[in-house]
TrEMBL record, chain A:
<keyword id="KW-0472">Membrane</keyword>
<dbReference type="GO" id="GO:0055085">
    <property type="term" value="P:transmembrane transport"/>
</dbReference>
<feature type="compositionally biased region" description="Low complexity">
    <location>
        <begin position="1"/>
        <end position="15"/>
    </location>
</feature>
<feature type="domain" description="ABC transmembrane type-1">
    <location>
        <begin position="94"/>
        <end position="304"/>
    </location>
</feature>
<dbReference type="InterPro" id="IPR035906">
    <property type="entry name" value="MetI-like_sf"/>
</dbReference>
<keyword id="KW-1003">Cell membrane</keyword>
<protein>
    <submittedName>
        <fullName>Binding-protein-dependent transport systems inner membrane component</fullName>
    </submittedName>
</protein>
<dbReference type="Pfam" id="PF00528">
    <property type="entry name" value="BPD_transp_1"/>
</dbReference>
<dbReference type="InterPro" id="IPR000515">
    <property type="entry name" value="MetI-like"/>
</dbReference>
TrEMBL record, chain B:
<dbReference type="InterPro" id="IPR035906">
    <property type="entry name" value="MetI-like_sf"/>
</dbReference>
<keyword id="KW-0472">Membrane</keyword>
<feature type="transmembrane region" description="Helical">
    <location>
        <begin position="7"/>
        <end position="28"/>
    </location>
</feature>
<keyword id="KW-1003">Cell membrane</keyword>
<feature type="transmembrane region" description="Helical">
    <location>
        <begin position="72"/>
        <end position="94"/>
    </location>
</feature>
<dbReference type="InterPro" id="IPR050901">
    <property type="entry name" value="BP-dep_ABC_trans_perm"/>
</dbReference>
<protein>
    <submittedName>
        <fullName>Binding-protein-dependent transport systems inner membrane component</fullName>
    </submittedName>
</protein>
<dbReference type="InterPro" id="IPR000515">
    <property type="entry name" value="MetI-like"/>
</dbReference>
<feature type="transmembrane region" description="Helical">
    <location>
        <begin position="243"/>
        <end position="262"/>
    </location>
</feature>
């Protein structure tokens, strides 16, 4: 992708070319055929596993189709979409999803940057230990962390009410919308901030040391160096972290399922799709919600790639 | 760096340790509480009890937990193995060969990794029921490929690009056969990347919840995360807090041990082929 990485294969190719003395175009064609042959199983599987079901979902979403009454299946065109988009339940779920996404991503970005700075500056014995510790939240499955936080804030088993001086001992965190969303967001933030901070840490490593030194010599304060040198040079890493976390947060499901099961108005778009399809067996409406969710995720990705000019090819290889 | 700054970086470092370990210590401590102490509202248990572990390993909850553990291990290993083999072929082609559609391969896997799992679940639920894959191992292995395969392609491509492939030719010039050159030069160079990719892919599969609860209905295929969500107490008034905590600790230990063993490679793999967390 970058000049440095293509240079090596090009040289190797040249070496191979002279050694075999085969006509270049022939060898090229052979290589192309081998490349396609090796890549095609993975591509076929990806298309079959994701492409086919999503087409099926688009098709199913055009029908009034309930598994409890399969014989009444009838074509309704875009009727399901009209039904969903005119229903406050959809807008409530979308609102909750956007709220959780924005709050967690912003907090994670700030917190993740702070963690990355500490890891970048921590000295001696602490550094390898920190790299290990930061991977623990990443390694723990979301359902387990959701249970840990649920039990923490729980009325009977939890200790949070006793520890926090400004809340009553009988505060039921999961009973009202504000507090429930707060706890859901906290567990999401705990679990995924380390991933952001690892990406930002590799971004920090890319900031040229000479630039920092030059700014220091010129008398720039720590904050000025951060704003004028460090952050601009990390733009690619920040953008990629933002994109991945935004898309990931937008799909939030596990935490909500474990903590509130959608009660207190905490149902996300993913949860709505799950409830319609798996619990209510409304294949038609559930499919339409799934398609709308897919469109939303695609729009977010498009917005990032076009609007923020994220160069995925370059920045997913951050860190060298 | 001044002495004061050093102190602050140490304070920051210790704060990170607390941050990372806090919920883990809590769930471990909860799992060690005796049933009578579960609701005492204390962070640490007043005395250590193994009753919760007995409950899920040999007691009444073991019928739920042990089959789920077996399902999770089996399904995740199979899905990881398939993904890594297919991805290795694909990543080798992308990293080493010139063929049309390279950008499409990477673009497709990136798009799939960003795809909301729930959107695939809806149609699969219906298809699997009609073809008999609902509540079977294969019925989870196949959708798990949508999680493990894209990430494996990206990470392995990043790793394979780092390998100095000319060394293979150099070995052949020095008189090694193609097979020898591959085995003695490429396998040791590519091995760590493949292992890291397998670990990361395994995590992602192990972490899945949506497929697990949607495409299974009994202990025939239900994986651990889904089983945890369906744990119930001895009576409807009893919360299965202790059993869930103990089961949570058991499914966490092997994963954390893997992370601790391979932390260096995992950090490299995550940041180089960063596709999903």
């Amino acid at each position: 992708m970058s000049a440095a990485t293509t240079a090596v294969p090009a040289a190797a190719e040249a070496a191979r070319g002279t050694r075999r003395r085969a006509p270049l175009s022939d060898r090229r064609r052979q290589e192309a055929r081998l490349g396609l042959l090796l890549a095609s199983p993975a591509i076929v599987v990806l298309l079959a596993v994701v492409g086919y079901p999503i087409l099926q979902a688009v098709w199913d979403s055009l029908f009034n189709y309930k598994l409890t009454n399969p014989d009444a299946r009838s074509f309704v065109g875009l009727g399901n979409y009209g039904l969903i988009l005119s229903d406050p339940i959809w807008w409530q779920a979308l609102g909750v999803t956007v709220l959780i996404t924005v709050v967690t991503v912003v907090v994670e970005l700030v917190l993740g940057f702070a963690l990355a700075l500490v890891m970048n500056n921590a000295l001696g014995a602490l550094r390898p230990g920190l790299r290990t510790a930061i991977l623990i939240p990443y390694a723990i499955i979301t359902v387990v962390s959701a249970f840990a936080f649920r039990f923490m804030f729980d009325l009977t088993s939890g200790f949070v009410n006793a520890w926090l001086p400004f809340v009553g001992d009988d505060t039921d965190w999961f009973a009202s919308f504000g507090t429930a969303v707060t706890v859901i967001s906290i567990s999401e933030i705990w679990k995924t901030t380390p991933f952001i901070s690892l990406l930002l840490l590799s971004g920090l490593a890319q900031v040229p040391g000479e630039l920092q030194e030059a700014a220091k010599v010129d008398g720039a304060t720590w904050w000025q160096r951060m704003r004028r040198v460090t952050i601009p040079n990390m733009k690619a890493a920040i953008m990629v972290a933002l994109l991945f976390r935004t898309l990931d947060a937008f799909r939030i499901f596990d935490n909500i399922f474990i903590m509130t099961n959608g009660a207190a108005g905490t149902e996300s778009v993913s949860f709505l799709a799950y409830r319609q399809t798996i619990q209510r067996l409304e294949i038609g409406i559930g499919s339409a919600v799934s398609v709308l969710l897919t469109i939303a995720v695609a729009l977010i990705a498009l917005m990032f790639v076009k609007g923020f000019k994220v160069n995925l090819a370059a920045s997913t290889r951050a860190g060298r | 760096m001044s002495a004061r700054a050093k102190v602050w970086w140490w304070v920051g470092g210790i704060a990170i340790f607390l941050y990372c370990l806090f919920p883990v210590v809590w769930i471990v401590s909860l799992s060690l509480k005796a049933p009578a102490d579960l609701d005492d509202g204390r962070f640490l248990p007043s005395s250590v009890s193994w009753q919760n572990y007995e409950l899920i390993l040999s007691g009444s909850a073991s019928e739920l937990f042990l089959p789920a553990l077996r399902n999770s291990v089996g399904i995740c290993l199979i899905a990881t193995a398939i993904a890594v083999v297919l991805a290795a072929l694909c990543a080798y082609a992308v990293a080493r060969l010139d063929f049309p559609g390279k950008a499409f391969v990477l673009g497709l896997s990136l798009a799939v990794s960003m795809f909301p799992v729930i959107s695939i679940v809806t149609p699969l639920f219906n298809i699997w029921r009609s073809v008999g894959l609902f509540d079977t191992w294969a019925g989870l292995v196949i959708p798990y490929l949508s999680i493990t395969l894209p990430l494996s392609i990206w990470t392995l491509t990043a790793f394979f690009r780092e390998i100095p492939w000319e060394m293979e030719q150099a070995a052949q010039v020095d008189g090694a056969t193609t097979a020898q050159a591959f085995r003695k030069v490429i396998v040791p160079l590519a091995g760590p990347g493949v292992a890291t990719t397998a670990i990361i892919a395994f995590f992602l599969a192990w972490n899945d919840f949506v497929y697990g609860i949607s495409l299974t209905s009994t202990e025939a295929a239900r994986p651990v995360p889904a089983a945890l969500a369906f744990f119930t107490g001895a009576s409807q008034f009893e919360e299965p807090t202790g059993a869930i905590s103990a089961a949570a600790v058991i499914v966490t230990i092997p994963v954390v041990v893997l992370v601790l063993l391979f932390q260096r490679q995992i950090v490299a793999g995550l940041t180089q082929g960063a596709v999903k967390g």
